[in-house]
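ESCALATION

Customer reports they have been waiting on this structure for their group meeting. Please prioritize. Original submission:
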Amino acid sequence: MKRKAARFLQIAIPLGLGIFLTWYIYNRFSPEQLAEVKFYFAEADYLMVVLAVTLSILSHVIRAYRWNFMLEPLGYKPDLANNFMAVSVAYLMNIFIPKSGEVSRAVVLQKYEKVPFDKGFGTIISERVVDLLFLMGFTALALSLKFEELQSYLQENGLIDKAVLVLIILAFCSVVGFLTLRYIKGGILGKIVGFLSGLKDGLLSILKMKKKWNFVLQSCVIWALYLLSFYVSTKALDITASISWSTLVVTFVVGSFTFAFTNSGFGTYPAVVAGILFLFGVPETVGTAFGWIVWTANIASLVLFGLISLIVLPIYNRDRD
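Update from on-call: job pushed to the front of the queue and completed.
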């Protein structure tokens, strides 16, 4: 019963947060502002949106291709089409049930390529370590590009002292947490230690990989496509088309973090993107329209390819041993 309740809350809380943010922003806008948002939706260059989505899908193909670099040392070389469809199903599942994509991806590979679940899942966790490292790198880049502007904003609004205090508290908690986990092996903390150990093993497995430089290159291409896709998306509206490179990178990075809070960024992505763009001089109505256009287009493509994959997988593998 407790497990079911926890699972329900895991789905309901992020979804509820997304719905609340959407409702809150909608009700904050005046009728004139809502009319502006609708205008920007109507005036958007959807050819640019389609091109951006195409680049995003291409990154998923490369992710499927890169997966084999991790599976081959384990003695498996799945079909690229099955890899891609497994990735597509994973993205689809994450939209409706947060954090379920990794499991479903490993299940698909086990069913159609006979890759043991634990081995397939282990490679996916290792992938996530790499993704986290790239996101951290982009975060550092974003902070360096906009450091002076962010510092000035914090000072003008009297927030810099609070920000420093928060950072100190976080650093202290991190040290205490690390020392605690270092000496506790049982219970829920033991599971956390095990999880962190798994992340370490995943990173080490990448370093020991025979084709690790190919893997690193493919990882760079994936993240370059993510950024390029976002860049092309900004060309859909005249106002966002002229934003600076530094603003683009910051918006891309902060927007990426929202996917951890609600179902694939539902509600949070458009709100956060609009907020960041507004901070750097883009009208809130423009940022809101842009955020929803980008999010809706990408989610629609994930749903489409995910559903197609669910249908095609059994047909494609019907005659395989």
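Sent to customer with the following note: The chain has one domain: 34-113+120-158+211-316.
Escalation resolved.
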